[in-house]
Model the fold of this input.
Amino acid sequence: MRKRLIVAALVYLPVNAVLFGIKFVSIMTIPALTAHSETLIPIATIATFILAIPIAWYLAPYLQSRAFADMRERAGVSFDHRPGEEKQTVAAPKGAEELGVDQIGGGKDTIKPQRD
Done:
């Protein structure tokens, strides 16, 4: 439960920003809503703070799922530290020539460097 809370707290701000952006753009682009923007924008702001909490809580387990762990493993990133083992560090990022084009799907195409 603690890991889920930490991940949800990290995801909360981006989720809040996306929700606010969607509501703000819709208020400002729809002429019928633009006339009432003085009251709708504060309501939208408060609503996004509240709505982002359950959405971030719902997204947190998916960000901890095995699919994301496999993707991190293929990219060479590791954050696990088990008792009795040496502390692992994040691997240096691979260059474009070492990464496959389709990392998630496991494709074989690779990116060729544009210059040597």
